[in-house]
């Protein structure tokens, strides 16, 4: 099942239908995650979860750079 990006913050874990939640640093104005560690694992996460028979996962962006 493909990865899904959360457009809103879920109010509770019960609101999430996916099997996994992946937390990334928020994206900057340029559309790129500011955190180098998040950018480093992005390709691996996509390789694991972005397959038709993979477990479902929801990407949630948290943590602005100034925070």
UniProtKB/TrEMBL annotation:
<dbReference type="Pfam" id="PF06110">
    <property type="entry name" value="TXD17-like_Trx"/>
</dbReference>
<dbReference type="InterPro" id="IPR010357">
    <property type="entry name" value="TXNDC17_dom"/>
</dbReference>
<dbReference type="InterPro" id="IPR036249">
    <property type="entry name" value="Thioredoxin-like_sf"/>
</dbReference>
<feature type="domain" description="Thioredoxin">
    <location>
        <begin position="17"/>
        <end position="66"/>
    </location>
</feature>
<protein>
    <recommendedName>
        <fullName>Thioredoxin domain-containing protein</fullName>
    </recommendedName>
</protein>
């Amino acid at each position: 099942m493909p990865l899904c990006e959360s457009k809103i913050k879920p109010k509770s874990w019960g609101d999430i239908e996916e099997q996994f939640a992946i937390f990334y640093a928020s994206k900057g104005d340029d559309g790129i995650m500011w955190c180098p560690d998040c950018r480093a694992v992005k390709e691996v996460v996509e390789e694991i979860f972005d397959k038709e028979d993979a477990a479902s996962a929801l990407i949630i962006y948290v943590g602005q750079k100034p925070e």
